[in-house]
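Look over this record as teaching material.
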Amino acid sequence: MMLWRHILAALHDPDAARREQLLAVGAAALAHARRTDDHPADAETVCRIALEEFGILLDAATAAAALAERRVPGGRQHEVPLPNTRAGRRASRAHCLPGPPTLPR
């Protein structure tokens, strides 16, 4: 199941396990997609997006953990291909899309 399916399921089910973490990962993904050279993705941006897009209040630690999950060694952000693009369909066929997000404990 793709990341956004997990996020949408958590958004519509208030009793979902790890709901806050999943929505934080979704907000971090949106913050990453909307970043610019002048405004990189940060915990404050993730908290703002979570409130505006998902209607939840996140604390800074949860937002920072969600951002950290998106990072790869070397400090670069990894890109997840969108499913409705050629690269996304190719990755989906190759089973390369990430599974459910996991946060460090």
In short: The two ends are 23 Å apart (CA to CA). Helices lie at 3-12, 19-34, 43-54, 60-70, 86-93. DSSP finds five helices and no strands in the chain. The chain has a mean pLDDT of 75.
